Amino acid sequence: MARFDLDGKEIKPLSICLIGGGGFIGSHLCEKLMEETSHKVIVIDVSDEKIKHLFNQSCSWFNRIEFHKINIKNDSRLESLIKISDLTINLAAICTPADYNTRPLDTIFSNFVDAIPVVKYCTESKKRLIHFSTCEVYGKTIGSFLPKNHPLRQDPDFYLLKEDASPCVFGPIEKQRWSYACAKQLIERLIYGESAENGLKFTIVRPFNWIGPRMDFIPGVDGPSEGIPRVLACFSNNLLRGEPLKLVDGGQSQRTFLYIKDAIEAVVLMIENPSRANGQIFNVGNPNNEVTMKQLADMMIKVYAKVSGVSEADLSTVDISSKDFYGEGYDDSDKRIPDMTIINKQLGWNPKTSLEDLLEATLSYQHTTYSEAIKNAISKPSL
Ligand SMILES: NC(=O)c1ccc[n+]([C@@H]2O[C@H](COP(=O)([O-])OP(=O)(O)OC[C@H]3O[C@@H](n4cnc5c(N)ncnc54)[C@H](O)[C@@H]3O)[C@@H](O)[C@H]2O)c1
Questions:
Q1: Where does the NAD-dependent epimerase/dehydratase domain lie (predicted)?
Q2: Residues above pLDDT 90, as percent of the chain
């Protein structure tokens, strides 16, 4: 069926090179593009575990998706795959806070050095690039430097994060947590520079805590038992195992959560409306879904009890210091609320799903997918 852009023009099928397309965001984007559009997707990743279900010969889109098992650090095929595509989307990254201060070099290489050839090939071949950055580029809010009860902390000018106005405020170098944010910021600056000097057509996406099914892994089931995934999978793991949910430094950090399915609608609008998305940096988040990590844990306990039948009284939280949880060099952003003016104006996009609804959908998935495997893992006698 014909698709039309926001200006009423018919959209021609595109060939999209999706780097890092085998991960959480990539898997949802592939599903959407296969189910609802005629675009072709060339996925590049080191793993296809999360998108395997799309490669079934019986699927109507079978000829529109292909997978290339490539590590973009060192593979000459990358250049030719970018050159034969109309658009490149780069999702590949190390993007788990537990890695930022324990593997700072891998984090910096992955988020900056490894992305440079992607930018270069897009510039050279005059191909459009949608690059995934992060809301972490804002770092800490200016308000966080004011005394705790200072009235200006309540003033949006001191906490609302705006693409074209807010500064990027990171901690000192010894706080290696900022290695990720700093590498992402530098690649944004490189892309911006390529556009200014060499005409690269780009869009930069700053996701604000997109969550949903297939995010990360459950330690000891489909990821290393000593691994620390992002907060949704950490809390899910605790819930599935009936362990207390660990609140780092009391769980006082504030975040806004966006349902992955809402987020993917924004990305498809960017793909299909180049004249409105090129040259833009977009915050993509849900300012209405703000909670502290403590509130998120309490909500997840309630929702998990409802979807799993486990008694709420058997689920609890426990405090842990960031040093014990993440190790030396950890630091945190206090609060992250996106200003939505630019994406709303350019693409008319708004998030829809409440935190309660997105947690219900996600925790139902976690329970159905993992509870048996966890029971088996727990009941196995340790050697
Ligand atoms: N999920 C979020 O809320 C969020 C928030 C901020 C930023 N982002 C950014 O969005 C992008 C995608 O995030 P995600 O949540 O899907 O993460 P993810 O870890 O699930 O996906 C990243 C994918 O990139 C692949 N990859 C990494 N290095 C690679 C390499 N050298 N060669 C080939 N493939 C490689 C991984 O195998 C993985 O499948 C990242 O750039 C991340 O920084 C995401």
A1: 16-285
A2: 96
Does residue 54 belong to any structural domain of this protein?
no
| Count of other CB atoms within 10 angstroms of residue 156 | 11
Cβ partners under 8 Å of residue 155, min gap 6: 143
User: Whose alpha carbon is nearest atom 26 of ligand 1?
Assistant: 92
- Whole-number Cα distances in Å, 198 to 123, 125, 202: 7, 11, 12
Is residue 144 one of the residues assigned to a domain? yes
Mean pLDDT for 178-205 is 98
- How far, in Å, CA of 102 to CA of 56, rounded? 39
Taking the model in full, what pTM does it have?
Answer: 0.97
Distances from the Cα of 214 to the Cα of 78, 84, 88, 170, angstroms: 26, 30, 23, 30
* Structural domain containing residue 287: 93-371
What percent of the residues of the chain are helix, what percent strand, and what percent coil, each to the nearest 5? 45, 15, 35
The Å distance, Cα 290 to ligand 1 centre, comes to 23
Give residue 120 CA to ligand 1 midpoint distance, Å.
20
How large is the angle between the packed helices 231-241 and 355-379, nearest 10 degrees? 50
Atom of ligand 1 nearest to the CA of 25: 16
pLDDT digits (tens, 9 = 90+) for 247-293: 999 999 999 999 999 999 999 999 999 999 999 999 999 999 999 99
Question: CA–CA distance from 276 to each of 15, 343, 346 (Å)?
Answer: 19, 10, 6
Residue 6 included in any domain: no
Nearest CA to ligand 1 atom 38: 23
Atom index in ligand 1 nearest the CA of residue 50 equals 39
Closest by Cα among 126, 107, 129, 105 to 118: 129
- Catalytic center residues: 180
Interstrand relation of 258-259 and 210-211 (parallel, antiparallel or unpaired): parallel
Ligand 1 pocket, residues with Cβ under 6 angstroms? 20, 22-26, 44-47, 71-73, 91-93, 95, 110, 114, 132, 134, 207, 209-210
Stretch (H or E) spanning 40: strand 40-45
What's the CATH code of the domain at 279? 3.40.50.720
What is the number of domains present in the chain? 1
Question: CB of 75 within 8 A of CB of 114?
Answer: no
